[in-house]
Amino acid sequence: MKPLKRYQYERYAILCNLAYPTTFNHTLYGFDKNGRHEITDRWGRTIIRILWGKESEVVVVFKGSQSLWDWLINLACFPKKIRTGTKWCRVHWGYYSLLEQSSKTTGIKPNPYISEAMRAELLQASENNHQQNGLTLYQQIEKVLLPQIKQGKKITFTGHSSGGAMAILVAHRLYQQQPTAIKRIVTFGQPATGCWSFKQDYPLAKRTYRICCDLDIVTFLPPIPFMFWHVGKMLWLHNGKIYEDTPTLARLYRSIVSWLLRPISYHYMNKYIRNKDFFDKH
Questions:
Q1: Quick one: fold of 6-248?
Q2: Gap between the Cα atoms of 104 and 44, Å rounded
Q3: In the β-sheet with 79-84, what is the strand arrangement from edge to edge?
Q4: Which of 134, 140, 222, 228 is deepest in the core (most CB within 10 A)?
Q5: CA-to-CA distance for 5 and 88, rounded, in angstroms?
Q6: Helix 93-100 vs helix 68-75: angle between axes, to the nearest 10 degrees?
Q7: 208/204 Cα distance (integer angstroms)
């Protein structure tokens, strides 16, 4: 497994963060003006952005939970049996169902608080979605990616929270048809996606990076021990360091202890040394 470089981490983290605003200027991040496709959920909200430019990489960004309904999906954790080639495995029903929904076209109403350029961008996305009605989210993703793959481009999937779980499922499914097309998968604050059978069948472990930050409770979901399992390499950002593949129980224990001792830890000299630059300004 090739290490995830810092500039790659920062790039995907920024794109995941920018998945939440209604719109953003994707050309500022090296993508072509027309290198963008948006996919909406059943309520007409943008949930997936596919971005590409002159480089050989296409980035598929999945948005995480936004509403109460989205958070309830995390609780729909009964196993869903799916077929992969000649095998069967079980995954989280809630995240699987997100990819099986169809988009809904939404009209763009006049809004005095947005610019004409932004309105045109939203209208274009709405027209694109109208053409995709009747297709599941996965089918829409595939329809956009296959022409890019035929041009020799590699696909990177990234997402935050439940968006990370969706990225894992889409990468796993696309691999069945295009095993050489996937470059990497990078997720942030992702809950577990499948059962042990899925972990055993997942072919992209060496290309998958799962970023966890301190005591992010979502990364411990679903809260059913030994039923759901994570895949890929875990990079845990904790106390200013990066730990690789720390066992779940050890990570939970260290996080709780760190949280309980935090008031005391501020008494240590390294905290004072860390802030030495403050005095250079006075």
A1: Rossmann fold (3.40.50)
A2: 5
A3: 79-84, 87-92, 194-195, 228-229
A4: 140
A5: 34
A6: 130
A7: 6
- Spatial CB neighbours of 134, under 8 Å, sequence gap ≥ 6: 102
**Among the listed residues 90, 66, 100, the one whose alpha carbon sits nearest the alpha carbon of residue 222:** 90
- Kindly state the tokens that stand for 171: 């990468």
pLDDT tens profile 188-226: 999 999 999 999 999 999 999 999 988 888 888 888 888
- Helix, strand, or coil here: 120? helix
Residue 155 one-letter amino acid:
I
Torsion angle of C-alpha atoms 188, 190, 194, 199, degrees rounded to 10: 40
- Model pTM? 0.82
Q: What end-to-end distance do the CA atoms of the chain give, in Å? A: 47
For 263, other C-beta atoms within 10 Å of its C-beta total 8
CA nearest neighbour of 172 among 143, 130, 124, 204 = 204
Write the single-letter amino acid at 16.
C
Residue with tokens 């049996």: 81
Rounded Cα distance, 95 and 191, in Å: 10
> Residue 117: pLDDT band by 50, 70, 90 thresholds?
low
* Rg of the chain taking only CA atoms, in angstroms: 20
